[in-house]
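Session log. Operator J.P. requested a structure for one protein chain; no other inputs attached. Running the standard single-chain path with token output.
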Amino acid sequence: MNSSSHTNPEGVALRIIPCLDVDAGRVVKGVNFKDLRDAGDPVELARRYSEEGADEITFLDISASVEGRATMHNVVEATASQVFVPLTVGGGVRSVEDVDLLLRQGADKVGVNTAAISNPELIDQVASRFGNQVLVLSVDARRCGQGVSTPSGFEVTTHGGKRSTGIDALMWAKEAQERGCGEVLLNSMDADGVQEGFDLQMLSAVREILSIPLIASGGAGKAQDFVEAARQGADAILAASVFHFGILTIKEVKTALASAGFMVR
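Structure written below.
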């Protein structure tokens, strides 16, 4: 995808991506990563979303224990054999070998987050071995809290938003792009699961410094929220709760985007 892809209405169709947070083989969803509720079987949900017009599916393995890992690999294999839209898998990916295994099991793209923060060269290694289209950098960002300041006012967090890194979110996204990541998934930790809209200010700030595709995440509550994210230059928009709990359908979201003049598949 070329760098002009973020002039969205004329160029590339906007992608709508349901996100499935998988814990011990089940899809769960909470608010700000707490109070998790069961939302169903991952393979069934992925198949349903694919049939309903999802452009991609993202799985995030949130139980990063060894058992969770094995369960997740089974889920990826089962989903890849039944769902024919691109599948991105993230959570606990720490090495080139982890990426290789997920791709063999049917993932199309792999998301990295914490491991890339502790070892930025992982981005270079994955991109040079598999191509940058395979690598999605997941950035869990929030507005700087007490005692933390970054040039942009936004910082990167880890461990589901529990740990501050003090790293500037914009500088990190830019570095990842330079190292060869193919897309950035920008997740607003302040807005996650709250359903009151995306963090448009943060989205716009990151959009300005990136030429690679940008995925907006965290805060979808109504169809208009997707339109606002698209207006800030998101190439793809990811959501979980609104789809899992029947608040919105993918069709409703795409209809709203099309009515606002955006190209959708």
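Operator note: The longest strand covers residues 15-23.
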